[in-house]
């Protein structure tokens, strides 16, 4: 399934978002990178229909997403946002069950996701008592339990130790290989290159470049996006990026 955006415009006070062209298809990871305040999270909210653009259109398999009922969008698109404060004393189990409202899952599937994410022991804990890393794992588990074909994830590795970060990105790559369409917002430039098939670089609400990662993640484009000189080098673990002040 393909998600496309064209001609998106949104104004919020002094901030303006302008994305002329974007797409992600099945079996593909598209990474979004850029400095803080460049509009990455706002763009994700437009892609999943939580926010509406002032002009432009988001299409789901060629159809204007505004034609879909909210629950139908949830069956196709899941959003893992940045940490969400929980005003109620909900358990991890409550959050997982709620996340699957558009596509209910059986008990075996819930247990499988908990095991994959190594958080089975947290199932009946109060979400508000968890550490930052544990909360991220719960939100990740809730996102994939939704079983949508398109996954939008905003900094999924935030707060995580290396082992749990490895789990998350391993699962993400497996989902891509199974045909899911995945969009990742990532601050780590090397991770952005490593895990993405295509990359969208943003600055001040505008797209610096969008396309295959090796074409977009050039030293020139990175300097334009981040305002810093970057150097690239290849290592046994993949391409690495460094910058100087």
Question: How does this model look, in words?
Answer:
The protein has a 6-stranded mixed β-sheet with strand order 6-7-8-3-9-10, with helices on both faces. The chain is 33% helix and 30% strand. The model has no long low-confidence stretch (mean pLDDT 94). The protein has 9 helices and 12 strands. A hairpin with a 2-residue loop joins strand 4 and strand 5. It has 245 residues and is α/β, with parallel strands linked by helices. The chain is globular. It has one domain: P-loop containing nucleotide triphosphate hydrolases (Rossmann fold, 3-Layer(aba) Sandwich).
Secondary-structure map:
Layout: E1 3-12, E2 15-24, E3 28-33, H1 40-47, E4 55-60, E5 63-64, H2 70-76, E6 77-80, H3 92-99, H4 107-116, H5 132-145, E7 150-154, H6 162-177, E8 181-185, H7 189-195, E9 198-203, E10 206-212, H8 213-216, H9 219-226, E11 230-235, E12 238-243
Parallel strand pairs: 3-8, 3-9, 6-7, 7-8
Antiparallel strand pairs: 1-2, 1-4, 4-5, 9-10, 11-12
Helix pairs in contact: 3-5, 4-5
Task: State the gist of this model.
The protein has nine helices and twelve strands. By secondary structure, the protein is an alpha/beta fold. The strands form three sheets. A six-stranded mixed sheet has the order 6-7-8-3-9-10, with helices on both faces. It has a four-stranded antiparallel sheet with strand order 2-1-4-5, with helices on one face. A two-stranded antiparallel ribbon has the order 11-12.
